[in-house]
Amino acid sequence: MFQIRCPYCGPRDEPEFKYGGQAHVAYPADPEALSDEEWARFLFFRDNSKGRYAERWNHAAGCRRWFNVVRDTGTHELVGSYRVGEQPEAAR
Amino acid sequence: MRRLPDRGRVDHDQRVAFSWDGRAVEGLRGDTLASALLASGVLVLGSSVLMSRPRGIVGDGVTDPHAFAQVGAGDRTEPLMRMHEVEAHDGLVAESRLHQGILPTGPDPDRFEKRHAHADVVVAGAGPAGLAAALAAAEQGARVILADDHPQLGGSLLGEELLLDDRPAHEWARHVEDALRAHPDVLVLPRTTVVNVGDQGAVALVERVSEHVAPEHRHGRALRRLWQVRTRELVVATGATERSLVFADNDRPGVMLAGGVRGLLHRYGLVPERCVVFTANDSAYRTAIDLVGAGVEVPCVVDVRPDPTGPLAERARALGIAVRAASAVIGTDGDAEGALAGVRVVALDGGAEEVVACDVLAVSGGWDPLMDLHHHVGGRARWDAERLCFVPDGTVPGVHLAGSAAGVFGTEACRRDGHLVGLVAAEATGHGSAADGPDAPAARDAAEAPPADFVVTPGTDPVHAFVDQHRDVTIAGVERALGSGIRHVEHLKRYTLVGTGTEQGRTAKVNAGRMAADRFALPFAEVGVSNARPPAQPVTFGALAGRALGERFDPVRTTSIHPWHVAHGAVFEDVGQWKRPWYFPQAGEDMDAAVLRECRAVREGVGMMDASTLGKIDVKGADAGEFLDRLYTGVMSTLKPGRARYGVMCKADGMVMDDGVVLRLAEDRFLATTTTGGAAGVLDWMEDFLQTEWPDLDVWLTSVTEQWATVAIVGPKAREVMAALAPQLDVRQDAFKFMQLEEAVVAGIEARVARISFSGELAFEISVPMTWGLALWEAVFAAGQPFGITPYGTESMHVLRAEKGYFIVGQETDGTVTPLDLGLDWMVADKEFVGRRSLRRSDMLRDDRKQLVGILPAERLPEGAQLVDDADFEIPVPMIGHVTSSYDSAALGRPFGLALVRRGRDRIGETIYAPLQHGTVAVEIVDPVLFDQEGARRDG
User: What is the tally of structural domains in chain A?
Assistant: First the structure.
């Protein structure tokens, strides 16, 4: 069971959180301008890499804020958390 | 075995009486089930799992391949309990079931609890290393939890005759325990096993709270307690386990581990009559020395090493014990019961077998650090060719190993190592400095001679020599596996089952791995042993469930009207966590009859239902309209205050996600209703977009589902009932139109009233603060009496909406259905919304998508029934769709339903077929709207 640092509330146990998949995948600004393939890539394709991975978490049973976490998918180490709008370098 | 009156840590004056296999047995207070049975002359516990060979107790602690028993009577019975952990007590009921227990059939009469705790340092194991680590960390100021399997702290110190600081070692253990218990920030948990280590110091412990007393003495205490501890550092001081040696008939009752024999003497005062020791290392000499000291005859120590000259061997010789160097036990002889009567000893350089009579053979093949908790977090191990055991290969951050779990042998060395590790762990949590900490105690253990690399006695009978006694795996079995081409220990494990089962190969898997290494002439370091996976010990499901059973398994949500439903005999349906009335049967009615009556009442008179569970989200802010436009397929921003509009939202993939009516309460405020089951998901979905995609929008979201109770009055006579309830409200059609919202006083309660209909009938939905729900409901029921108002449940609601062709999310939709598939083209506005782009992906434009249609089957079909084109078909036959809803209709006077059918809208009027078990049923495809197609009834 992870202990995740919510950037707004501090460290809390994993059951308080909901997972939200890969971070920094924005909803396309103009979906109608995309080809079927480009749109399908947005819908269905996500990274599945070993190592540091930026992912979204929601403090669902707490402040209900979305934020991002950098997690090492190889070691399960939680490198740090950062707020929406910040970049992974801000993780702490 | 025999009990000595003056030895052991049992209370020789306190007898306990219990039942073993239905007969009365006595033991002493302080006995375990295992020791009490040995003292009572029970040598044979039962027969083995595959070969039905007699088996007995082998050790005195966690390492024992056979000591598992069925414990407890009636619904308290538990299988595969560890006999060295089960404390003998008055009223204990146990029976012999070594390998296959039985499960109770009724609910567990005992209670299980959970506790959460935080710690700086958790120490697993209270032997010399664990006690020293806990004390050192505590003295540095760290918050410490110390857990140990046994009722008494001390670990190996209790099972040996040792001196520490020239005092008996168990006295030192008692002294440290007193010091720890005096610390305000130390929690000492005896009878507690650390079973799992997870991420970021999440440690699970199982405490045996009251299972060591009979049920009538538990006084409401939990049987066991699961501790979920978040610790910053973990010290694994779980000690080492002894492994056996492999020779013919090494599984006879009476063949024991040498450390176990010492433990039985020092813990319980139990001794054999005549004991031979067979060893590949020095430690087993202690067994010989201690037994002779207790007056037991030890004819010889059989040592595989050519020249055993260590201090312990010398002491043994000085006591007159014969040491047979360069020798091994090649087989054993049994008595009539199959228990040990003698051992056959050979010199390793050849020569004749010699039989030595004995009732116990104490064996030591070496010691394996117990590193399960280190392995749980991905810690590695390496083979140490000098110590002849696996030792930790580095540590994982936050998880330290101390004492013999770290491959440190020798009591004082373990204590010293524990002290140092305790300081390091404390420093890691910001308490003190390991470098400047209190001095570590000295380690002056006598040196031991090197152990021998020895597993199998050469020339022994491979068919009866057991590598894994727990799983009945012999040398022949391992050879067969290796001969078949298996080279990897994990494959060997799965092929032979070596190292599996309740014992998990503690006495066996190192030997199995070494045999594989020998066979392929590989360095053992490369072959290794199979993995240890959590939990470190079996955990009962009861401990994991705790009190989350029955009605506490999942929260139950009820509306404020619920007591009325119960009092009026409603049958309930679970919708998400909500309890909703399914139907209200009257005397003698079954469900079908009740639903037909309820539906008829709504279509012909007036009905009422509790709609409070519908999800309600308050959407507030200057950009609320814009926000809703981006999420719903329709336009909400053009809605005027006081008006309502039906909306559908899609996932990004274009599939229908949820639906509901959106009401505009004010210029900057909407109330979005959702399905009962979808409410939380929709709020999450909205929050996600608001926070991460459109943080610039001025919108605030609040769940108000539980703030409002809603009663729907539905049917041609709804207007009369509404008028009676709210005399000041103008309910005439011109003043109060469909999809209009009014604030009014209803039955004396301030309310919102909306003209929303999910049945096609004239309907008023009245919402009041939740606490007033029951009062409103009763007022509506009373006001409706002159009109025969009929309460109805979710089943009738489903029938009524299906007659109108209204879909239900999760019934007609399953995540593969778009608004266009449902015929909602009119709902899809020409503007951007989430998922819109998906609606023109190539797959969405196919002309053979499944579309929502009505069906008129010859008989009522089961929901989910598949549909095919032809009545006469051969399997395999293409499925062209399936039934999503199916009911009997009072209004239509026949069975009907909804279905998703390929090209369904183009096939209206055609007949397709539902193949059922009893025959094929003809199904006519019709328009989904089967009742009041012109929509004349909604205004009454």
Answer: 1
pLDDT of B717 reads: 98
Task: Please judge whether A1 and B687 are an interchain contact, meaning their C-beta atoms are less than 8 angstroms apart.
Answer: no
For residue B710, pLDDT beyond 90: yes
Structure tokens at B168: 């008996």
Residue B141: what are its φ and ψ, rounded to 5°? 105, 5
CA–chain centroid gap for B163, Å, is 43
Rg of chain B (C-alpha set): 38
Sign of torsion over alpha carbons B24, B25, B26, B30: negative
Report pTM: 0.89
In this structure, what token pair is assigned to residue B843?
Answer: 């797959």
State residue B517's pLDDT score: 86
A35 touches B at CB < 8 Å: no
Question: Residue B516's pLDDT band (boundaries 50, 70, 90)?
Answer: confident
Q: By percentage, how much of chain B surpasses pLDDT 70?
A: 100
B652 and chain A in contact, CB less than 8 A: yes
Instruction: Indicate yes or no: CB of A27 within 8 angstroms of CB of B201.
Output: no
In chain A, residues with a C-beta closer than 8 Å to the C-beta of B378 are: 75
Is A14 contained in some domain? yes
Residue A76 lies in a domain: yes
Whether A79 is in a domain gets the answer yes
- Partnered with residue B116 across adjacent β-strands are B228
Tokens 């707490």 sit on residue: A62
Query: Domain range spanning residue A72?
Result: 3-26+39-90
Q: Residue B880: its pLDDT value, please?
A: 97
Q: What are phi and psi of A15, to 5 degrees?
A: -60, -15
Cα–Cα nearest to B814, from B888, B905, B882: B882
CATH number, domain containing residue A16? 3.30.2270.10
Contacts of B841 in chain A (CB under 8 A): 36, 39-40
Q: How far, in Å, CA of B165 to CA of B819, rounded?
A: 82
Phi-psi region of B505 (alpha: psi -120 to 50; beta: other; left: phi over 0): left
Report the pLDDT value the prediction gives residue B886, as an integer from 0 to 100.
98
Among residues 801-840 of chain B, which lie with CB inside 8 Å of chain A? 832, 834, 836-838
- Chain A residues whose CB is inside 8 A of the B198 CB are 1
Domains of chain B, CATH where assigned: 2-104+245-364 (3.50.50.60), 116-241+367-447 (3.50.50.60), 455-536 (1.10.10.1100), 562-613+707-800 (3.30.1360.120), 615-705 (3.30.70.1400), 846-926 (2.40.30.110)
Could B689 and A27 be called an inter-chain contact, meaning their C-beta atoms sit closer than 8 Å? yes
Contact B202 A1 (CB under 8 A): yes
Axis-axis angle for helices B475-483, B489-496 (nearest 10): 120
pLDDT one-digit tens code per residue, B242-270:
999 999 999 999 999 999 999 999 999 99
CB-CB under 8 Å, A3 with B841? no
- Give per-residue pLDDT as tens, A12-62: 999 999 999 999 999 999 999 999 999 999 999 999 999 999 999 999 999
Structure tokens at B594: 């009740």
Among A3, A20, A43, the residue with its CB nearest the CB of B653 is A43
Tell me if B691 and A65 make a contact (CB, 8 A cut-off): yes
B695–A32: do the CB atoms touch at under 8 Å?
Answer: no
Residue B507 is predicted with a pLDDT of 83
- Among all chains, which residue has been given the structure tokens 């003998």? B88
B229 DSSP β-pair partners: B117, B203
What proportions of chain B, in percent to the nearest 5, are helix, strand and coil? 25, 30, 45
Amino acid at position B456, single letter:
V
Token pair 């949590």 is found at B429
